[in-house]
Amino acid sequence: MESTPKKITDNLFKEKLSEGTSYEKEVIVNETDLATRLGTAHIELISTSALIAYVEQCCAEMADEYLLDGLVSVSAEVNFKHLFPVKSGETIYCRSVLKFIDTNRLFFDVVVLNDKEISVGIGAHERYIVDRKSFLGENQ
After folding, report:
1. Rounded Cα distance, 21 and 98, in Å
2. Which of 48, 49, 102, 105 could make a disulfide contact with 82, Cβ separation 3.0–4.6 Å?
3. First-to-last CA distance in the chain?
C-alpha cells in the first residue's frame, strides 16, 4: 500500500492549480449576515455561519477558476474560529491559500480580516472535486 497521497491529475483543470495558490474575496457585511437575522444570537454582528459561508465561497471561487467544464468543487469540511466582531456595512476580506492537494480533495487555510487587518476568523476548509452530472445522479 502506498503511503504518499497521489497528486491530482492535470486532466481536471483548464490550467494548473498548485499548492500555494491564493485567492481573496472582498465582502461588505449586510443585514442578512447578522446573527439576529439568521437567528443564531441576539446581537447585531456578523454571524459565524455567515463568515463560514463567505470562506466556502472564497475557496469555491478559486477552484472554479481552474476546473474544466462539468466539474465542480463541493464542501466537505470546515474548521473555523470566529475571533472578532463585525458590524453591518463593514468590509471584510476572505483570503484562502491552497495548502494541499490529495487526489480530488483540496485543502485550504483561510483567514478573514477586517479593513484594519485584524483577524476576524481563521480556519481550514476541505473541498472535493466531482463531476457535476455524476454527483447529482444525472448520468443514470
Report:
1. 5
2. 48
3. 33
Q: How far is CA 10 from the centre of its chain?
A: 21
pLDDT tens string, the chain, 140 residues long: the values are 444 444 445 577 777 888 999 999 999 999 999 999 999 999 999 999 999 999 999 999 999 999 989 999 999 999 999 999 999 999 999 999 999 998 899 999 999 999 999 999 999 999 999 988 888 888 65
Give dist(CA 94, CA 2) in Å, integer: 36
User: Given strand 105-114, what is the order of strands in its sheet?
Assistant: 22-28, 91-102, 105-114, 119-131, 71-82
Q: Do the Cβ atoms of 49 and 36 come closer than 8 Å?
A: no
Residue whose C-alpha cell is 502506498? 2
Q: Which amino acid is at 9?
A: T
